[in-house]
Every structure is written in structure tokens, then in C-alpha cells.
Specification:
- It is globular, with a radius of gyration of 24 Å.
- Helix 1 (27-37) runs parallel beside helix 15 (450-470) and helix 15 (450-470) runs parallel beside helix 17 (525-537).
- A hairpin with a 2-residue loop joins strand 15 and strand 16.
- It is α/β, with parallel strands linked by helices and 553 residues long.
- The chain is 31% helix and 18% strand.
- The protein has helices spanning 27-37, 55-58, 79-84, 94-107, 197-209, 233-241, 243-251, 272-285, 288-292, 302-319, 323-329, 347-350, 398-402, 413-416, 450-470, 480-495, 525-537; strands at 16-23, 43-46, 65-69, 91-93, 114-115, 120-126, 131-136, 141-149, 171-174, 189-193, 212-217, 223-225, 342-344, 356-360, 366-370, 373-376, 381-383, 386-389, 404-407, 435-437, 475-478, 543-546.
- It has a domain at 16-155 and 395-474: FAD/NAD(P)-binding domain, CATH 3.50.50.60.
- The protein contains 17 helices and 22 strands.
- The structure holds 3-acetylpyridine adenine dinucleotide.
- Residues 65-67, 154, 160, 175, 193-199, 201, 216, 218-219, 340, 343, 361, 366, 390-393, 505, 510 line the site of 3-acetylpyridine adenine dinucleotide.
- 3-acetylpyridine adenine dinucleotide binds next to strand 3 and helix 5.
Length: 553
């Protein structure tokens, strides 16, 4: 149920007619309301959750925290907002970020255009009427000229289909569907499956509560120390004094994050001791951007990357006392940075605790969940009171594919994307007029400071709608040729890097049967933004803009 104290919009009984229907009430959906409503458009966002906030509403697992610094990971559209909000720590915790999102919703009066507890199950473009018709799980109908998919990239939680889960007598949880009143693991035998960003953040905290914690690791991940700390008041003051300039500087970087000097040398152009000293300094500073930005070629040259990977492996070996556990934790099957680099607080140290055991489920995979725990194919059994799935999401395409998106002309999004997602600029899909996607596949979103990408995408969409309105146009569609060229470019850029060497969610590799296609655009936020601006300046090159003519009756 909606939280009445927050006063969400109430459900509409009849067919609702809008200029823009927005799917999702997270950071993207909320900014889309603000921006599009500001242009006089009638908009409404539909959110499956009982509260706003998207990722930050759902992912309430212990230790959930952003891995981009708070002063960067925030909206830039209002200088008053960025000046007045005080972030208490270097990296925002989930509760703090959710508080911020709720503050933004109140401050800009966004709630009246958000409908909570409403899952969109289908979206059909009616070509004759030139409008989208969305249906909710409760059979409500929404008609809208335009549809903005702002349903998130990591919003479709995935629990592996291990047989026997239904028989488990203990409790089980997924990181992305965490109970709102928290979970107390005190005195319990807990199993955490998965060692991505979510697992790495929760493991040190659960270890402190549990009687015993078994961590079931399939792939060792690289993790760097976050070096979280209370916000330094001088740093905050200086940052705020230069906020607009910093935001502009961020837009001119690949990750949309300012404050990290551009690298100037390839890694192997530097003597070993100087290179290791540079890595050490980045390690002490904390954070992932700074580390990956140490040299120009860490994500394009395997030899260069090996030096950084080995530096971190040695840090792991130097931290974890049991040599066998240390070797298992030291990633060897992918170059550092090609899977999402984790940030942690005491992750590796946690394996020195007597009550923590690392289990290698690469060499001996999980076979089934039993009534009392789990069993591996090699017949190892583990008695557990609680199981936590930190097993990730059907990333980037999951949310769109859960909705039955089609057109009256017979196009079906699930079919169109059967061999991997196809988009033009990550913003539109050929054959699906008037539907925009925010930070979807083909966009750099997930490889950047996400809120910067959200603002850039939504601004581009808003400007596009303004351009059309000024010219009496009401229909826009990406051409199949522009889409094919963009997808080719996205692939070519990815293939010029080391990213495809990892079995990551960027590649769809975590979902059995999902096409192995590298989905994000890794050419950088700066390059992408310039390209999008150029496309707009050339009259929306690659898109067909038209005025819909109603068929005579
Ligand atoms: O999910 P993941 P996540 N048997 O997909 C393992 C963002 N995020 O929720 O690597 C055994 O990364 C799987 O193993 P493998 C961030 O972008 C950000 O942790 O597939 N294990 C992997 O270890 C992040 O990248 C923040 O071999 C199985 C793990 O489960 C993204 O969300 C915090 C398995 C899944 O890792 C997703 O992170 C949290 C199986 N059958 C998340 N199936 C911050 O901002 C899967 N695994 C800090």
C-alpha cells in the first residue's frame, strides 16, 4: 500500500489520457516528471513498488551503499538542491539516498504524478491513433502520446532456479527484494550465494551477526577499499562552492565523474616501482574510478591491465591469512575492471574471522537447496538457517522484457531483442515509435555516474519533444539503419576494449540462455553526449519525425 504520509497520487478509475506515460518511479522516472511537466506536458509515472526510489527502494540489504561519492551521485538540475542537501558520509548509504530521493520528490512536488503499487504489464502502440496504450496488473488502461521507459537496469532480481528451494525450512532473501524491517542474522548459520557488489557489501556485516557464515563463491571479484568516512566539511564546502563548474567538468569525462585527473601515460611506459607506487596511492585514496584512471590503457591492453590486476591480487594475498582462501579470492579469470569493480569495507579481512568459510562453487557447483541447507554436486552439504541470494539481476533488458511491448503493426519488443538488444543511441528502438528508453542498452548509463546519464537522457528526450511540438510534429521513430549502425558502433567500441573478456552482466552472461551481447556503450559519457547533441543539431538525424494524419472514417 502507498505510504499515506507521503501523499502519493491515488489510482485513477477510468482510462487515463496523458502526453507522456513514464514507467518507473526511481531516479529516472522522477526527473522525467520534473522535466517534462516543466514543459507543460501531462505526465504520470507508474511504479510497481509501494514507495518511490527504484533501486534504492528495493535494495535494503545490510551495507547497501553507493559506490560513487555522494557529492557526485546526486541530481545537478537544481543548484539550490545540491547546495542545501548535506551528505553525512563520503559514500551514501541506502537509507540516506532514499531520504534524499524523497526530499527531492517533496521539494519539487513530484508525488502527485507518481502512482505507486502499479505494475505495467503491457504497452501497445496503436499506430492508427498514434498513441501508446499501457495496461496495469490491475487492468487499468493508460493512453499516452509518448511512453518513457525508466524501469531501471538492475531492477529484475534473479534467483537461480536451484531445485528444492521450496522445501527449505529456513528463510531466504534476495538482495534486491530485502524486507523493509530488516533481517537479524544474530546466532544463525547463514549462507550467502554470490560475490558481486551486493555480496561484497553485505558479507562483512552479516559475518559480524551470524553464528557462522558460508560464502558460496562462483567467481572471485576484484574489490577495492572504499575508504568511506564522515564527510569532510572543508571538502564539502569547496565542492559546493564549485558545484556548477564541477558538473560541467564531469560531463567532459568518460564516467561523468569529476575530480580525477586524466591519465597521461600507458601503464608499461612507467617503471615497475613507480607504477606500483601509483597503484598504492590510488588504493589508499579509495574508490574505483581513480584506480582505473591511473593509466591510459588499463581497459584496453591486457598487459597493462595485468599489472593492476596483479597489484590487487597481491593486496588480497597480503590481507587474507589462509593462503588457500586468499588464492580462491584472487580473481584470475578476468581483467580488473571488466566486471563491475566492487568497493568494500573490510571485505577481504572478513575471511580472517573464525566464523566465515569460503566455499568454491566453481569447482563444485551448487546442486540443490535442501530442507536444511544446500548440497553441492560433489555431495558437500551445508546446514543453514538462512540463505541470502546476492545473485544479481536480469540486467539492462530484464525490466523492458517483463512488459509485453508491441505495436499494432505487429512488432514485438521481445522478438526484436531476441538476439540481443537493438537501440539507436540507447534511446529509441526502431519499429516502436514514440517510446523512449532511459539509460537502457546501447547507452553508457551503467558505466557512468548514473544520475548524470539519467539527466542527460531525459534532457535530450525533453528537448526532442519540444522540438517536435514547435513544428507541429507528434511522431518520432528511429530508423532501422541508424539503429543497426549504432549497435555496430557499440559492439566495435566494446571489442576494442577488454570488457568482452569477462562473463559479466554487461554481457548477459549471468542469465542462462540470454544472448551474449555486450550491452552498454563504453565509448564514454563525454563522447556519447557530444554525439547525441550532434544528432539533435542535425534535426534528429537517424530518426523519422512526422505529423500523424488521422485516417478518414
Ligand atoms: O549482482 P552481480 P550484484 N551459483 O551480478 C553469483 C550494482 N550494484 O547484485 O560472477 C553461484 O554483480 C555471480 O557469480 P558469477 C552494480 O552495478 C551497485 O552483486 O556469475 N553463484 C556473482 O558473484 C553491480 O555490478 C552497488 O560467476 C551465482 C553474483 O552471484 C550490479 O548492481 C551495490 C549463481 C551476482 O553478482 C549487480 O550487483 C550493489 C549461481 N547459480 C549492486 N548465479 C553499489 O553501488 C549468480 N551467482 C555499491
Amino acid at each position: 500500500m502507498p505510504d499515506a504520509s507521503h501523499g502519493p497520487a491515488s489510482r485513477q478509475p477510468d482510462v487515463v489520457s496523458l502526453d507522456v506515460a513514464i514507467v518507473g518511479g526511481g531516479l529516472a522516472g522522477l526527473y522525467a516528471i520534473h522535466r517534462l511537466r516543466g514543459q507543460g506536458l501531462k505526465v504520470r509515472a507508474y511504479e510497481a513498488g509501494s514507495g518511490i526510489g527504484g533501486t534504492w527502494f528495493w535494495n535494503r540489504y545490510p551495507g547497501a551503499r553507493c559506490d560513487v561519492e555522494s557529492l557526485e551521485y546526486s541530481y545537478s538540475f537544481s543548484d539550490e538542491l545540491q547546495q542545501e542537501w548535506k551528505w553525512p558520509e563520503r559514500y551514501g548509504t541506502q537509507p540516506e539516498i532514499l531520504r534524499y530521493i524523497n526530499h527531492v520528490a517533496d521539494r519539487f512536488d513530484l508525488r502527485r504524478d507518481v502512482q505507486l503499487d502499479t505494475r505495467i504489464v503491457s504497452a501497445v502502440f496503436d499506430g492508427a491513433a498514434n498513441q501508446w496504450v499501457l495496461r496495469t496488473a490491475d487492468d487499468e488502461t493508460i493512453q499516452a502520446r509518448y511512453c518513457v521507459m525508466a524501469a531501471g537496469n538492475l531492477s529484475t532480481p534473479r534467483v537461480p532456479d536451484f531445485p528444492g528451494l521450496g522445501s527449505f525450512r529456513g528463510k531466504w532473501y534476495h538482495s534486491g527484494l530485502w524486507p523493509h524491517d530488516g533481517v537479524d542474522f544474530t546466532g544463525l548459520r547463514v549462507g550467502v550465494i554470490g560475490t558481486g557488489s551486493s555480496g561484497v557489501q553485505m558479507i562483512p556485516i552479516i559475518a559480524r551477526q551470524a553464528r557462522h557464515l558460508h560464502v558460496f563463491q562462483r567467481t572471485a571479484n576484484f574489490s577495492l577499499p572504499a575508504r568511506n568516512a564522515p564527510m569532510d566539511p572543508t571538502r564539502e564546502r569547496n565542492h559546493k562552492a564549485e558545484y556548477p563548474a564541477r558538473r560541467r567538468a564531469a560531463a567532459d569525462t568518460p564516467f561523468a565523474i569529476a575530480g580525477h585527473p586524466k591519465p597521461t601515460h600507458p601503464a608499461l611506459a612507467v617503471p615497475d616501482d613507480a607504477r606500483n607506487a601509483a597503484y598504492e596511492s590510488k588504493w589508499q585514496e579509495g574508490g574505483s574510478i581513480s584506480f582505473l584512471y591511473a593509466y591510459t590503457d588499463l581497459l584496453v591492453s591486457k598487459e597493462a591491465n595485468d599489472t593492476a590486476s596483479e597489484f590487487v591480487r597481491n593486496k588480497i594475498r597480503g590481507t587474507v591469512k589462509d593462503p588457500r582462501t586468499a588464492e580462491l579470492l584472487a580473481p584470475k579469470d578476468h581483467p580488473i575492471g571488466t566486471k563491475r569493480l566492487c568497493l568494500d569495507t573490510n571485505y577481504y579481512e572478513t575471511y580472517n574471522r573464525d566464523n566465515v568459510t569460503l566455499v568454491d562453487v566453481r569447482s563444485d557447483p551448487i546442486d540443490r537447496i535442501t530442507e536444511t541447507g544446500l548440497r553441492t554436486k560433489g555431495e558437500q552439504t551445508f546446514e543453514l538457517d538462512a540463505i541470502v541470494f546476492a545473485t544479481g539481476f536480469d540486467a539492462m533488458t530484464g525490466a523492458q522484457r517483463e512488459i509485453d511491448v508491441r505495436t499494432s503493426a505487429g512488432a514485438v519488443l521481445r522478438d526484436h531483442w531476441e538476439g540481443g538488444p537493438l537501440t539507436y543511441l540507447g534511446l529509441m528502438v526502431s519499429g516502436f515509435p514514440n517510446m523512449f528508453v532511459v539509460t537502457g542498452p546501447g547507452s553508457p548509463g551503467v558505466k557512468t555516474q548514473m544520475i548524470a546519464s539519467i539527466e542527460q537522457h531525459v534532457d535530450w528526450i525533453a528537448d526532442c519533444l519540444d522540438h517536435m511540438r514547435a513544428r507541429g510534429l507528434d511522431r518520432i521513430e528511429a530508423s532501422a539503419q541508424a539503429e543497426a549502425a549504432w549497435v555496430g558502433h557499440v559492439n566495435a567500441v566494446a571489442d576494442s576494449t577488454l570488457y568482452p573478456l569477462a562473463n559479466s552482466w554487461y554481457m548477459g552472461a549471468n542469465i542462462p540462455g540470454k544472448p551474449r551481447v555486450f550491452m552498454p556503450y563504453v565509448g564514454g559519457f563525454d563522447r556519447y553526449k557530444r554525439h547525441c547533441d550532434a544528432v539533435a543539431a542535425k534535426g534528429y538525424e537517424g530518426f523519422a519525425l512526422s505529423r500523424h494524419v488521422k485516417a478518414a472514417v
